[in-house]
Amino acid sequence: MTNHEQAIKKAKFADMKFQVGQRVQLILESAGAHKQYTSVIGWVENEFLMLRVPQEDGWIVHLREGMNVEVRLFSGLSIFTFKSRINTMLLNPRNYMLMSFPEEIFETPMRAHLRVRTSLPVEILNASITGHNLGDFHLHDISGGGTSVVGPHKLGEVDSSVKLRLRFDLQSTGKSEDAEMTGTIQNVELIHHANQSDSKPEYQHGIRFHEPDARVVLLVHELKERTD
What we know:
Elements: E1 9-11, E2 23-28, E3 35-44, E4 48-52, E5 55-56, E6 59-60, E7 68-75, E8 78-90, E9 96-100, E10 105-109, E11 116-117, E12 123-124, E13 138-142, E14 146-151, E15 161-170, E16 175-191, E17 202-209, H1 214-227
């Protein structure tokens, strides 16, 4: 367990909020622990799961009946994992597979206020400062509860609201996300870049999000994993 995760605990099937169409990660039983992404088609509780056969470069991934896999999915502010077995491959006509219902499910809650450094570009959606380029502003760090935004213009006074747009890819789901976040400016600081005498000073804004976004919490979790 890493220091940005809380203790792993056992969970119930209902805790995962399993949904049709939900993206899940399959970790295949192989020397390289190969990962694939697929989606949920349906399930009968305590009997079986039905998932779409994953594809890679437009071709279905070669799986076999009897193969054991680990299923990993993100729901709420937790990552859930469980073991399953591919019982039946239904390749015609829809490329489905029937898998064993999980006997044990483990939940790893993630800390919403873990903070990591990043230079992710950010788009400012406030009407008063439209016209800037996407690259004008970037994040200095981010957590599930807030972020630090750096750019050439002041976004507003302390206690004023700001709306941000973040685009990022999540490895855990295999999806590209487009998240709009609103927050309150907590502080503003004029910063000068060290050893860059010809560069213009920039404004660094500490922003607290009004509501946490589960996708941003997962992004922070993944960024932290890459630096550990």
